């Protein structure tokens, strides 16, 4: 049960979340995500606190960001236009350079495969669809 002071500070239904870096017993650094919730009625409230180790997720996120940055720099340096198509949703990411190579501004081509289909030269439609 919350103390009276806590009950005033944490009304029922209140939720809080934050992340921190902590030193483990072996002096390694652990990234944690903490949540605090206050449950119950005004006369019987309880604080529920949880800590979750998110160290591996943070490392994976950092590695992914570094990889994406390297890929972005490589494409920018090569002046290549690229696109990525999600076959399940039809969503496409066209790089600004890809659009520029075709003479379009970045906001002129919507992020969907139908945009690419509309850009195919009429004489090439049969050949493009047969592959």
Number of domains: 2
Low-pLDDT residue spans: 1-7
* Helix content range: 25-40%
Radius of gyration: 26 Å
Report the structural category.
alpha+beta
Question: What is the count of helical runs?
Answer: 5
Strand order of the largest sheet: 1-2-3
Global shape: elongated
N/C terminus separation? 67 Å
Mean pLDDT: 86
Q: What would your notes on this structure say?
A:
With about 130 residues, the protein is an alpha+beta fold. The protein has 2 domains: about 1-80, no CATH class; about 80-130, Beta-Lactamase (2-Layer Sandwich), CATH 3.30.450.20. The protein is built from 5 helices and 5 strands; from the N terminus they run αβββαββααα. The strands form 2 sheets. The chain has a 3-stranded antiparallel beta sheet, covered by helices on one side. The protein has a two-stranded antiparallel ribbon with strand order 4-5. The N and C termini lie far apart (about 65 Å). Mean pLDDT is about 85; it is low at about 1-5.
Structure, briefly:
With 131 residues, this protein is α+β, with helices and mostly antiparallel strands. Helices cover 37% and strands 29% of the residues.
